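Let us work through a complete example step by step.
Step 1: write down the sequence.
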Amino acid sequence: MILQIDSLELYYGDAQALDDISLGAEEGELIAIVGANGAGKSSLIRTIAGIETPRAGRIAFRGRDITGLPSYRICNLGIGQVAEGRQIFPSLTVEENLQMGALLPRARGAMADTMREVFAMFPRLEERRGQAAGTMSGGEQQMLAIGRCLMGKPELIMFDEPSLGLAPALVQELFRAIRALNQRGLTVLLVEQNVVASLKLAARAYVLENGRIVMAGTGADLLADDGVRQAYLGVG
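Step 2: predict the structure and record it as tokens.
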């Protein structure tokens, strides 16, 4: 088990965001986390990443307790995050953004090789390597956000709403890229508003409601479940 979460609880002041969350991911799995807005999906990602500190529970990565560690240490252990809203450095060039992603001690020595791999995966980034990132399209900026995360040499990569704001054609390209990364052996935790696409990709999935896991199973099983179809797909 590369990631194991047990009885996780998170509060923002007196408001509980995560309530007794337990889940796990095996090496090389693609796990989807689905649910309505405000269900706690992004809070879960942020807590795993060390951005939020849980009140109770345990997070283990490769058997090591990482609960409450600062985010830079969690990144250097091999957990990467593609945050909601991309959060690139708009005034820096594409190449400079990618170099920023390789500043982790685990990644510095492999910067040149990793950048070649990122450019092979996203040729448009190589074409625009000297361009200011803020002048690119939304889809190109999302590619850059993924590329910058890959520069840190993650073993587990977490996506938080990666298709948000993208045109439908670009969404398909994005999901192809996520599938390709998973097929290369990366473990993926995918939080995504596009329930159908994420469940089709996922080996396993969890449904969050009001900070609690209310359903879990294979992606295919959840996609066929009448309750999931009614709640998230608008069909019976």
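Step 3: interpret the result. Residues 130 and 144 are 13 Å apart (CA to CA).
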